[in-house]
User: Fold this.
Amino acid sequence: MGMGKREIRKREQREKKRVAAERVDVLFTLAERVFPYEPELSDRYVEIALAVQRKAKIRIPRKWRRRYCRRCHSFLVPGVNARVRLRSRPYPHVVVKCLKCGHIMRFPYLREKKGRNRWKPRRALSGSGPSEGSS
Ligand SMILES: [Zn+2]
Assistant:
């Protein structure tokens, strides 16, 4: 009869993660908005976003993944406090250097082909695996 406790539990978990992802997105959006006036406040927003992310065990949304320093947790703005370079070797990737602490991050670069790969299963993006690789 109806849903078992497990299903309810699962559904609640999913809902929690969805809400957490939304909050992370809002916090990063705020960080970006206040950066020109109060960069320290941007860093605070990043800290809060990362706390939410850790607690909910979710991934940082793709669009924000390159926008903070993994080491010092600064909000990063290319050309202001971050240097961004594209490299094609040994594989296509983006190199982001935090100009505050010097930390260098590499992100594999997937060329977006229009009309292709548009329907990646969402699970692959918000998966429950280990959080984003920091290689
Ligand atoms: Zn840094």
